[in-house]
Design a protein that fits this description.
With 427 residues, the chain is of the alpha+beta class. Helices cover 39% and strands 21% of the residues. The chain contains 15 helices and 18 strands. It folds into two domains: 85 residues, Orthogonal Bundle (Helix Hairpins); 320 residues, BirA Bifunctional Protein, domain 2 (2-Layer Sandwich). A hairpin with a 4-residue loop joins strand 6 and strand 7. Strands 1-11-12-13-16-10-9-4 form an eight-stranded mixed sheet. A three-stranded antiparallel sheet has the order 5-7-6. Strands 8-14-15 form a three-stranded mixed sheet, with no helix packed on it. Helix 6 crosses helix 14. It binds one RNA strand of 90 nucleotides through helix 3 and helix 4.
RNA sequence: GGAUGGGUGGCUGAGUGGUCUAAAGCAACGGUCUUGAAAACCGUCGCCUUCGCAAGGGGGCCGUGAGUUCGAAUCUCACCCCAUCCGCCA
């Protein structure tokens, strides 16, 4: 959510950003509504003042009269307030100056790439075929047991997931490592390490709403009987961790890394990525969430991207860094940077990472503030970013590390966490 | 799931219809004293919103939402959450 004062004073910027993000909001209506709401509130405040005086003087007659006069006004105000807020919630975040302006994902800009696209002296296969042949991926059985878009990840592939987890948590929890990654990337930020968190996977819809994401209920698994829903990302329960709290400036930045399963209904993506485990109803993800001072948040996002790149480089997976354009970026994002990893089986880059800088957009709605050293209060800035989306990284490893005989080499950095095993063979 | 007790400012905690404009303590901040620090003493000290150049004033907030009343932290109802015990359980 934006600040109404900001909208009032920067109507053009907000209108342009909204249009660039393919959203529609009547800002004039919003501002008019804000004025009406404010003047009605002032009227109520005035009457309340009189009412308070009458009560103090035990003036029962005057009090009763005022009470009658005010009848319905509070309800009217509540109605107005509701309308006002529902419009406020429809205004997307503005975007950064360096965000490309374009209508759809074709406007995304590749800002750098790393690694050589591997050349095979055989026709590379897709991960689902390789996985099936090696007995480490069973989609058929999952289909019978749970339906489409589910899978059994078995044997050495399951071990690779735990190795990935170990590898990432080790360095994310290490200050010196964070410092060296930042230094290497030319980013100047605190070297605070990431606190590992295993968060809840259920969330109250009311709290999820306060994450200021454009929520489509049909995209989530909803449990109305319990007033709960399943999270689509660890970000959903990590972000609200300081809801309605004030953080001291000296305690920032706060960096969390959460490991959880993510659940997505994928209602709007029928027929898309139906093969393999690229798009699942359920996948595990290691997700970073950070809180920092406003003046540090761009650099903070740069650090998160540097960490993502560090992980892909360590795994020796070719990738490109994409600055996501206005038409493709998230509703609450100020700047979105995606990483796309090369998938030889599909012969293209596929999104494996996303880094969202939401600035004060989520924190304002969550009411997570920082007390500055001069006593001033303001919303903190928030960043969230993928560390490892397990499903898709497993796909990338299988496809990039496949050998002519159908076996799969294990990335060197993970071998340590797999008892020194170097290759996945058919058992 | 059953029973009981609770949710009050950053924290502890008093307050059971009107001097609550929420006591007191702790923490924090400023000062006095001191070579410095501690202690002691003095002072400041919630959030949102609105009017005002400012000083300052108004309104709202005691888990959330509705209600009763001239007047609600206090009474009523619903819901949420926490603690303890019992039951069940990884």
């Amino acid at each position: 959510m934006l600040d109404i004062k900001f909208i009032r004073e920067n109507k053009d910027i907000v209108a342009t950003a909204t249009k660039n993000k393919n959203r529609e909001v009547d800002l004039d209506e919003l501002l008019a509504l804000a004025d009406t709401r404010k003047s009605l509130k002032q009227e109520i405040d005035g009457l309340n003042q009189q009412r308070n005086e009458a009560a103090k003087n035990r003036d029962i007659e005057k009090g009763g009269q005022l009470k009658k006069e005010m009848e319905g006004m509070e309800g009217e105000y509540a109605e107005l307030d509701k309308k006002f807020l529902s419009l406020m919630f429809k205004v997307p975040n503005i975007h950064s100056l360096d965000t490309p302006v374009a209508g759809d994902e074709t406007g995304n800009k590749v800002i750098r790439s790393w690694g050589e696209i591997p050349k095979f002296d055989f026709v590379p296969k897709e991960h689902d075929e390789l996985g099936k042949d090696l007995g480490i991926l069973d989609i058929e059985t999952a289909g019978e047991i749970s339906g489409s878009r589910f899978a059994y990840i078995k044997g050495d592939l399951a071990l690779i997931q735990f190795a990935l987890l170990q590898f990432c948590l080790q360095f994310l929890n290490n200050q010196e490592k964070i410092e060296s990654i930042a230094k290497e990337a030319g980013v100047s930020v605190a070297n605070t390490s990431f606190t590992p968190v295993i968060p809840p996977v259920f969330i109250k819809p009311a709290v999820q709403n306060r994450m200021a994401r454009f929520m489509m209920p049909e995209e989530h698994y909803m449990f109305p009987n319990d007033d709960l829903m399943l999270i689509g990302s660890a970000e959903h329960t990590l972000g609200p961790i300081y809801m309605d709290k004030i953080i001291d400036e000296k305690d920032l930045p706060i960096r969390l890394v959460g490991y959880s399963t993510s659940f997505r209904r994928e209602a709007g993506s029928h027929g898309k990525d139906t093969k393999g485990i690229i798009r699942q109803h359920q996948f595990d993800k290691l997700e970073m969430e950070t809180f920092c001072l406003p003046e540090h948040s761009m650099q903070e996002q740069d650090l998160l991207v540097a960490i993502q790149e560090y992980i892909l480089r360590a795994l020796k997976l070719p990738y490109q860094v994409v600055l996501v354009c206005t038409g493709d970026m998230g509703f609450p994002d100020y700047r979105q940077i995606d990483l796309e990893t090369w998938m030889p089986g599909q012969n293209k880059y596929r999104e494996t990472h996303s880094a969202d800088l939401t600035a004060s957009f989520q924190s304002r709605r969550l009411n997570t503030r920082v007390r500055r050293s001069d006593g001033r209060l303001e919303p903190v800035h928030m960043n969230d970013a993928t560390a490892v989306a397990m499903g898709r990284i497993l796909v990338a490893i299988i496809e990039n590390y496949q050998q002519a005989d159908g076996s799969i080499k294990i990335p060197e950095v993970l071998q340590l966490y797999m008892g020194g095993q170097t290759t996945i063979f058919k058992k």
